[in-house]
Amino acid sequence: RLARLLLYISVGGANVMKEIILATHGHLSEEFKRTIELIVGKTNNIRCFCMTKEKAEDVGKKELEELVSQSDEDKLIVLTDLFGGSAANICAELLMRGHHFKLITGLNLPMLLTIVTTDSDKLTVEELVEAGIRASVEGVINVNNILSKEEKNID
Q1: Do the beta carbons of residue 15 and residue 112 sit within 8 Å?
Q2: Residues of the chain where predicted confidence (pLDDT) is lower than 50
Q3: What's the sign of the alpha-carbon dihedral 72, 75, 80, 84?
Q4: Exposed end of the chain (fewer CB within 10 Å): N or C?
Q5: Which residue(s) pair with 48 in the sheet?
Q6: Is the backbone of residue 33 left (phi > 0), alpha (psi -120 to 50) or beta?
Q7: What is the pLDDT of residue 153?
Q8: What are phi and psi of 123, to 5 degrees?
Q9: Across the chain, where does the E strand assignment appear?
Q10: How confident is the model at residue 37, as a pLDDT?
């Protein structure tokens, strides 16, 4: 309870934004957080979980469950890098055991940037997740196709 209260205070008290856990292979989650903070400044509502080669699966499960348990799961979004990857599988197992956070796989920068910059008390977790997924998909662009279409229009 103390950890949850401290987290509540650290992210702004009554105007708490959604909580985000980035759970990835290696140290990718930490790099995503660093990159987001490069763009938007310091964030207090993002925590990282790194599943490394050196970390035993049972240690990873315990660590991730502690992160989730310290959160307000009604406002928690867990973003993982890969569906079927160890972090996503651990989170899915937590959901099957009764936890109720939102779990989204396929983390990319457009998704995270959208979630962080559009979060507000007026948006539900579900609405924020959907906006992040849309941005994720729309952010994948074959630039060569765009350029070849523009070249055809110039000719």
Answers
A1: no
A2: 1-15
A3: positive
A4: C
A5: 22
A6: alpha
A7: 80
A8: -100, 140
A9: 19-25, 46-51, 76-80, 102-105
A10: 96
Supply 113's token pair: 């940037």
pLDDT at residue 154, as a whole number: 78
SS3 letters for 31-51? HHHHHHHHHHCCCCCEEEEEE
First vs last C-alpha separation in the chain: 66
Question: CB–CB of 104/133 below 8 Å?
Answer: yes
How far apart (Å, rounded) are the C-alpha atoms in residues 138 and 133? Answer: 9
**CA proximity to 48, closest of 17, 73, 19, 5:** 19
Structure tokens at 9: 């205070």
**139 SS3 class:** coil
Q: Which residues are 105's β-sheet partners?
A: 80
Position of tokens 């662009």? 141
CA–CA separation, 109 vs 63, rounded Å?
A: 24
Q: Is the dihedral of CA 46, 29, 77, 120 positive or negative?
A: positive
The pTM of the full predicted model, rounded to 2 decimals, is: 0.86
Q: What is the pLDDT of residues 143-155, one digit of tens each?
A: 999 999 877 787 6
Show the tokens assigned to 83. Answer: 């569906």
Size (the chain), residues: 155
Smallest Cα–Cα separation from 75: which of 19, 115, 118, 32? 19
